[in-house]
Amino acid sequence: MTKAKTRHEACYRLRLEQRHPLHGQILALLVSSLVLPEGGQEAADAGLPPGCADAFEMLAKLPPEQLHAVARLLDGMVEIRLPPAALAAAVHEVAGSQERRQLCLQRCEWLIRHGGSNRMILLLCPALCADDVRQLRRRLGIPVNKGRLPALPLEARLSVAADWQATAGETDTFLRYRALAERHPGCTLGQLYSTVAAVEGGCL
């Protein structure tokens, strides 16, 4: 693979063997190119040199084995152009996604240790899936609590409701629940979650 630099983008030229996965992709590109540009302006917008229309017409008539032969002749002529802005955006997106997942895994562990249900965890940790939660529960040795949680006394529920409403300015729901758990250490997250659901539903 060779790399050529231009002012605005990086260009990679790949030399391919017939068994290389990209060889099949070249074929797919050839097939997808069978739609002819309508008129000279559309051809110019597509970056096609003048006089290429006949090649497209011939491609449309080639049988599969000849398409393979055309693809073999394109070895060493494939270019991938990477605009720096698009590359930077992709790198930051992947890095940010990994950071979000690690944060969610840390939060998931805290929620499991404090009695959070799987439904609550998936709501507060959107970067995780149900299988992630199951694996972490298995590693921590903390299964799902299948019993019915006892309801909090009315006075405790009113106190929880007041503390929940006091954190309404916080946009991170996990942080609100963590603050609520710190204010009510005698309650499980399941009990807090049920109480908050009643508050949000206008039932308390």
How would you describe what is shown here?
This is DUF2857 domain-containing protein. The structure is a single chain. By secondary structure, this protein is mainly α. The protein folds into three domains: 12-82; 97-147; 150-203. Helices cover 58% and strands 7% of the residues. The protein has ten helices and three strands. It has helices spanning 21-32, 40-45, 53-59, 64-73, 84-113, 118-124, 130-140, 154-166, 173-183, 189-200; strands at residues 2-5, 10-14, 78-82. Strands 1-2-3 form a three-stranded antiparallel β-sheet. A hairpin with a 4-residue loop joins β1 and β2 (10-14). α1 (21-32) packs across α4. The longest helix is centred in the middle third of the chain and has 30 residues, at 84-113. The radius of gyration is 29 Å and the shape is elongated. 12% of the residues are buried.
Largest sheet: 3 strands, antiparallel
* Order of neighbouring strands in the sheet with most strands: 1-2-3
How many individual helices?
10
Radius of gyration: 29 Å
What is the number of E strands?
A: 3
The global form is elongated
Termini gap: 66 Å
Poorly predicted ranges = none
Query: Strand content of the residues, in percent?
Result: 5-15%
